[in-house]
C-alpha cells in the first residue's frame, strides 16, 4: 500500500509553462497610467534609540488589493528592526505618516501605528528575506486601485518589461528594458533596465500591463565623488515566488487564468456547454459557443471539439475550468507554428494545412502534419550545412510540440517518447534546450508511472534522473534538490512495484540528499516539500520491512514539514502534509497495535478535510484524504469490537473511489477497491460471528 504524495504537484505549472497569454499588448502610455494609480512611495527615517543617530531610505511599492495591501522589497525594511522610525507613504496625492515601534522582522506578523490623519493602523504582515519581498497592510484602509498581477514561471530572454517607481526619492518614473536571464542570486531574473535607488520594491510590468515581478533595486550612482550611470543590469524577483503568501489575500493566478477570470467564464457556464453538446446543439448553444470563441480568440470548431470530448462526470469541480485554460493556451502555442517560418514551399504548404486542422481541432491529422514537418526539416538540415543548427532546433521544436499535444490528451508515455526524441535533435551547444526537453520527458514518465505503475517507464525515469543528478552538482541548490527528489520518486515507485527493499533504501537516501543541501531558514518551502517526500519514502520502506523505526521517522518528517507550513498562508500544502501525517500514524498504529496513533491520525485527516473543502481545485487531495481517513478508521476498527468504526471506514473509502475513477488514477482506484473489499469482508465476518454467538446464547 502506498501513499500518494507530491508526484502530481508539477503538472499544472508544467502545462502552463508551455503557453502564452491571450491579453493584447498595451501602449507604453497606457501601462504608465495604470502604474501611477497603484504605485506607492515609501520614505523611511530610522532613529537609533541608543545614540539618536538616524538613517534615511526611500523605496517603492505597489497596491495589490482595494482594501490596502501593499507589496514592497524586504531589504528596505531592515532599518526598522529594533529601532524607532518615522515613515511617510505617498499614494499618488494621498500622504500617510507613521511612528514605528520595536519590530522583530523574524516574526510572522507585526503592527505599526498610523496617522492618516486619524485612520487606524499600518501593519506589516509578511517578510521573506530570501525572495526579498514584504507585504504591508493599511488597516482600515480605504478604496485603493490595485494592479493586475499574475504568475509566470519563465519569460524568454529579451522579453520587454517596464520597471516603475520613485528613483532616489524623485517623482514617479519608469525604466524600459528586457529580461536578461535567471543567473542572478537565487535564480531571480536579471533585467536590462535603468533601475535606480528608490525603485526597490516597485512593480515590474509586462507589455500587457500586468505586474509579474518586483524590482530588487538599482546600483551605485557615485564612486569616489564621481557620478556614474546606473548599471544596465539589475535584478527582479518573479512574483510567482510569492504564491502561498498572497493566497489569503488574492491568490496568484497564471496570466491565462487572470484573463479568463476577467471575462467572466465560470465552471458552471462550462458545465452547461458540455450538457448542451451532449444534446442536439441548437441555435442558442451555437450562439454561446460563438461568444466564447470571441472571448478566448479560439475557433468555434476547436471549442466544439473540446466540449465534445468532455465527459459529464468531469464537470462537477474546477477541473473543467483548468482543462479549458490548458486547452486555450496549448492551442495558441500550437497556433504559433514555431519553426515553420521557412521559405521552403513544402513547409509553407504544411503551415497552411496545419492552420486549417487547428481550426478543426483534428488531433490525428495534426499529428501526421507535424510529423511531416519534422521529417522535412530533418532532411533539409542534412542537405544545408550552413542552416543545419537552425533546422535541427526547428525539427526538435516540432517533435516537442507533438509531446505537448500528447500530454494534453493524457498520453503521457507518448509525450515522454516525443520529448526524448526532441532532445536527440538539439545540437550539443544548446544545453538549455536539452535540459528543457529532458525535464519534460521526466515529468511525463513519472505521470505515466504514477497512473499505471508500469515498470518500464519507471526504470527509464530512474536512469534519466540519475544522469540529471550527476549533471547538477554545480547547479543552484534548488535545482540540485529537485533532481534528487525526482530520482527518489522514481526509485520509490519502482521499489514499491517490485517489492525491492534495496530500491526503497535508495529512494530514502535520495530524499535525504535533497534535505542535506536545503536550509530550513533560507529555502523554507522546498525544505518542507523535501520532508514530505522523505516521509512518503519512509512509509513505503517501513511497510515493506515491517520496521517501526522507519514509520516513526516518517511521522517525524511530516511533523517537521508542519513546523514551517502555515495553514493560514498555504492551506492546501498544510492539508497535504496533514494527509501524510495521518497515513503514517495509521500505519504505525496498526504495526504497534496501539490506538493512540490511530486516533491522532483520524483527527489529522479530519482537520485536513475541513481545510481542503475550502479549496475548489483540490479534487485529488480530497480523494487521498478520504482514502487515508478510511484506512485509519479501518485499522482502529480492527482493534475495537463491533462494526461501527469499520462502517465509518467504508463510507470514507467509498467517497475516495469515484474520485480516483473520475481523474483516471488507476493505481488509486485499484488500491481503494482493495481497501473496500478488505473492510467489507471484515464487517461480514464479524457480523456472522455475532450472529453465531447470539444463536449459542439462545440455545442455552
In brief:
This protein is α+β, with helices and mostly antiparallel strands. It is 54% helix and 14% strand. The protein has 23 helices and 16 strands.
Shape: globular
Structural class: alpha+beta
Major β-sheet profile? 8 strands, antiparallel, barrel
Beta-strand portion reads: 5-15%
Number of strands: 16
Radius of gyration: 28 Å
Model regions low in confidence, pLDDT < 50 over at least 5 residues? 1-22, 88-125, 218-233, 314-318
Helix amount? 40-55%
Number of domains: 5
CATH class identity of the largest domain: Mainly Beta
CATH fold call of the largest domain: Thrombin, subunit H
What is the count of DSSP helices, taking H or I runs of 4+ residues? 23
Strands ordered across the widest β-sheet: 1-2-3-8-7-6-5-4
CATH architecture of the largest domain: Beta Barrel
From the N-terminal CA to the C-terminal CA, the straight-line distance is 45 Å
Whole-number mean pLDDT: 75
Structure description:
- The chain has 700 residues and is of the alpha+beta class.
- The chain folds into 5 domains: 236 residues, Thrombin, subunit H; 69 residues; 109 residues, Alpha Horseshoe (Serine Threonine Protein Phosphatase 5, Tetratricopeptide repeat), CATH 1.25.40; 110 residues, Serine Threonine Protein Phosphatase 5, Tetratricopeptide repeat (Alpha Horseshoe); 133 residues, Serine Threonine Protein Phosphatase 5, Tetratricopeptide repeat.
- It contains 23 helices and 16 strands.
- Helix 13 packs parallel to helix 15, helix 17 runs antiparallel to helix 18 and helix 19 runs parallel beside helix 21.
- The longest helix has 34 residues.
- The radius of gyration is 28 Å and the shape is globular.
Amino acid at each position: 500500500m502506498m501513499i500518494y504524495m507530491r508526484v502530481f504537484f508539477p503538472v499544472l505549472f508544467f502545462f502552463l509553462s508551455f503557453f502564452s497569454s491571450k491579453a493584447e499588448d498595451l501602449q507604453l502610455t497606457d501601462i504608465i497610467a495604470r502604474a501611477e494609480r497603484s504605485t506607492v512611495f515609501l520614505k523611511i527615517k530610522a532613529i537609533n534609540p541608543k545614540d539618536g543617530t538616524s538613517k534615511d531610505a526611500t523605496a517603492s511599492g505597489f497596491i495589490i488589493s482595494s482594501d490596502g495591501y501593499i507589496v514592497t522589497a524586504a531589504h528596505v525594511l531592515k532599518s526598522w528592526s529594533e529601532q524607532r522610525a518615522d515613515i511617510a507613504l505617498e499614494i499618488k496625492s494621498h500622504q500617510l505618516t507613521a511612528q514605528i515601534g520595536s519590530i522583530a522582522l523574524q516574526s510572522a506578523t507585526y503592527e505599526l501605528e498610523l496617522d492618516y490623519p486619524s485612520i487606524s493602523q499600518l501593519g506589516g504582515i509578511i517578510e521573506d528575506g530570501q525572495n526579498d519581498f514584504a507585504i504591508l497592510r493599511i488597516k482600515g484602509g480605504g478604496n485603493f486601485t490595485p494592479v493586475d498581477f499574475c504568475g509566470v514561471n519563465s519569460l524568454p530572454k529579451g522579453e520587454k518589461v517596464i520597471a516603475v517607481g520613485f528613483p532616489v526619492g524623485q517623482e514617479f518614473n519608469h525604466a524600459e528594458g528586457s529580461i536578461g536571464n535567471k543567473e542572478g542570486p537565487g535564480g531571480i531574473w536579471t533585467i536590462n533596465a535603468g533601475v535606480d535607488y528608490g525603485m526597490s520594491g516597485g512593480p515590474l510590468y509586462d507589455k500587457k500591463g500586468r505586474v509579474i515581478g518586483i524590482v530588487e533595486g538599482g546600483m551605485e550612482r557615485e564612486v569616489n565623488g564621481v557620478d556614474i550611470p546606473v548599471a544596465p543590469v539589475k535584478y527582479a524577483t518573479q512574483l510567482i515566488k510569492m504564491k502561498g503568501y498572497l493566497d489569503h489575500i488574492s491568490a496568484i493566478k497564471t496570466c491565462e487564468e487572470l484573463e479568463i477570470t476577467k471575462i467572466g467564464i465560470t465552471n458552471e457556464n462550462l458545465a452547461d456547454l458540455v450538457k448542451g453538446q451532449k444534446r442536439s446543439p441548437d441555435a442558442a448553444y451555437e450562439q454561446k459557443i460563438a461568444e466564447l470563441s470571441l472571448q478566448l480568440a479560439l475557433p468555434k470548431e476547436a471549442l466544439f471539439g473540446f466540449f465534445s470530448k468532455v465527459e459529464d462526470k468531469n464537470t462537477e469541480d474546477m477541473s473543467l475550468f483548468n482543462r479549458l485554460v490548458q486547452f486555450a493556451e496549448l492551442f495558441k502555442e500550437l497556433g504559433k507554428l514555431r519553426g515553420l517560418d521557412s521559405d521552403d514551399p513544402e513547409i509553407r504548404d504544411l503551415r497552411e494545412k496545419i492552420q486549417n486542422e487547428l481550426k478543426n481541432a483534428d488531433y490525428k491529422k495534426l499529428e501526421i502534419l507535424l510529423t511531416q514537418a519534422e521529417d522535412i526539416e530533418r532532411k533539409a538540415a542534412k542537405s544545408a550545412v550552413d542552416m543545419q543548427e537552425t533546422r535541427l532546433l526547428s525539427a526538435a521544436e516540432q517533435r516537442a510540440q507533438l509531446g505537448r499535444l500528447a500530454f494534453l490528451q493524457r498520453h503521457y508515455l507518448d509525450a515522454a517518447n516525443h520529448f526524448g526524441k526532441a532532445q536527440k535533435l538539439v545540437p550539443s551547444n544548446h544545453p538549455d534546450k536539452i535540459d528543457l526537453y529532458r525535464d519534460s520527458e521526466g515529468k511525463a514518465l513519472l505521470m505515466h508511472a504514477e497512473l499505471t505503475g508500469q515498470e518500464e517507464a519507471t526504470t527509464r525515469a530512474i536512469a534519466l534522473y540519475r544522469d540529471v543528478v550527476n549533471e547538477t552538482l554545480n547547479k543552484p541548490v534548488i535545482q540540485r534538490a529537485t533532481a534528487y527528489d525526482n530520482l527518489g520518486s522514481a526509485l520509490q515507485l519502482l521499489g514499491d512495484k517490485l517489492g525491492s527493499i534495496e530500491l526503497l533504501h535508495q529512494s530514502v537516501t535520495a530524499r535525504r540528499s535533497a534535505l542535506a543541501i536545503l536550509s530550513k531558514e533560507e529555502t523554507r518551502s522546498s525544505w518542507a516539500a523535501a520532508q514530505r517526500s522523505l516521509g512518503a519514502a519512509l512509509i513505503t520502506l517501513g511497510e515493506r520491512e515491517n520496521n517501526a523505526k522507519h514509520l516513526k521517522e516518517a511521522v517525524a518528517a511530516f511533523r517537521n514539514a508542519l513546523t514551517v507550513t502555515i495553514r493560514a498562508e498555504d492551506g492546501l500544502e498544510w492539508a497535504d502534509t496533514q494527509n501524510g501525517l495521518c497515513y503514517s500514524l495509521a500505519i504505525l498504529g496498526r504495526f504497534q497495535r496501539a490506538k493512540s496513533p490511530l486516533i491522532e491520525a483520524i483527527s489529522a485527516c479530519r482537520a485536513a478535510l475541513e481545510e481542503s473543502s475550502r479549496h475548489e481545485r483540490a479534487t485529488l487531495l480530497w480523494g487521498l484524504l478520504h482514502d487515508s481517513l478510511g484506512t485509519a478508521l479501518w485499522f482502529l476498527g480492527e482493534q475495537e469490537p463491533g462494526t461501527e468504526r469499520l462502517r465509518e471506514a467504508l463510507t470514507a473509502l467509498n467517497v475516495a473511489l469515484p474520485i480516483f475513477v473520475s481523474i483516471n488514477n488507476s493505481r488509486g482506484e485499484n488500491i481503494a477497491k482493495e481497501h473496500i473489499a478488505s473492510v467489507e469482508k471484515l464487517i461480514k465476518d464479524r457480523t456472522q460471528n455475532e450472529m453465531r454467538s447470539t444463536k449459542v446464547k439462545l440455545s442455552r
